[in-house]
Amino acid sequence: MWFTTYAIGGCYLYVAILVQQLVHPQECGRRSTYHIQEARLQNKKTEAYPNSWPWHVGVYSSAIGPSPFCGETLIASKWVLTAAHCILAALECNDAPVGRLFSYHDITGEHMAVTVADHNYTQRQRPAYNVRVEGVIMHPSFTKQISNRAFDIALLQLNHEVKRTSVAEYACLPEPWLNLPAGYFCKFAGWGRKPHPPHESQSDYPETLMELRTQIVSTSHCNSEIVGFDDIDAVFTDQAQGSPYTGDSGGGLHCLTPDESKWVIYGVLSTGTPDCTDGVDVYALTSTKLSWINGVMTAHS
Question: Which residues form the Peptidase S1 domain (predicted)?
Fold first, then answer.
């Protein structure tokens, strides 16, 4: 009897440890030092060094076309983080539950996938590869109104694990107490439109992954103008320091921790607003959604 109890208890412990490793990778947020030193600190989008953002992935839908329509962040072997409004766009007016895991294919008849370890999405060559999306869940507090996007966040469950390699890595989620101050510099990456020339209406979609350096700003002086956002559930960056653009939504705000030990996904890009001086970009703050993120991944792993 004691042996049976011990065996069952040991099995539960093993499963618990396995789930913990799937949801919270022991190693995360590591980039090559060479790539960090090569970063160009320009206030505009520039081409990223290939695979220097190993957790950034593009998301595709057979309903939309052959280019990534939003950005995503690999945070565990079978989970990626993105913006909920990206999911709405891919649903194309089909109704889907908010706050519950659902099958994109069952609702739309279309397929959704992410491309891992990609740089030039038009070349479709190694080391990049596709992974089918099995399930989608939007934050239960997300609403469709653009004036309320503080919970503009969603998780995609992949149909098989993404193994850690030199070109595929998991980003870290921030600690719940991490509060980066105004003036802190972070980075953003994506395949979204590149203004050409900057600050003018003309733009084009780059074929290669782009990156930019951006700065966190305080919006206490103009929060009343940014309806639906606040410093509790959202983080803002200054568009004057360079800005993401159409097609970049859902990508992560990559911030190196103050002790420079790892990169964390401090926010998920939701929208931009010109209401403040020079305009700001708005990200759903991830640290205030950790309980939901961790709960979903644990329940469905």
Answer: 7-298
Name which of 116, 115, 90 is nearest 103 in CA terms.
90
- Predicted confidence (pLDDT) per residue in 92-117, tens digit: 889 999 999 999 999 999 999 999 99
- Give 172's DSSP letter: B
Q: Residue 276 maps to which CATH number?
A: 2.40.10.10
Residue with tokens 């089918």: 132
Q: How many residues does the chain have?
A: 301
Choose among 23, 71, 60: nearest CA to 247.
Answer: 71
- Among candidates 12, 267, 19, 17, which has minimal Cα distance to 161? 19
Does 34 map to a domain?
no
Total domains in the chain come to 1
- Its domain, for residue 229, covers 185-287
- In angstroms, the CA 6 to CA 172 distance is 34
- Quickly count: other Cβ atoms within 10 Å of residue 176's Cβ: 12
Q: Quick one: tokens of 192?
A: 């979204």
Q: What is the pLDDT of residues 17-44, one digit of tens each?
A: 344 445 566 789 998 755 555 555 566 7
Please give the Cα distance from 35 to 52 (Å, whole number).
6
Say how far apart CA 160 and CA 19 lie, in whole Å. 14
Q: Which amino acid makes up residue 273?
A: T
Q: What end-to-end distance do the CA atoms of the chain give, in Å?
A: 30
Look at residue 204 and tell me if it is in a domain.
yes
Q: Is residue 200 part of a domain?
A: yes
Alpha-carbon distance of 39 to 173, in angstroms, equals 22
Maximum distance among all Cα pairs of the chain, rounded to whole angstroms: 75
Q: Could you tell me which of 70, 251, 252, 115 has the C-alpha nearest to residue 173?
A: 252
Which pair of tokens denotes residue 289? 């959604």
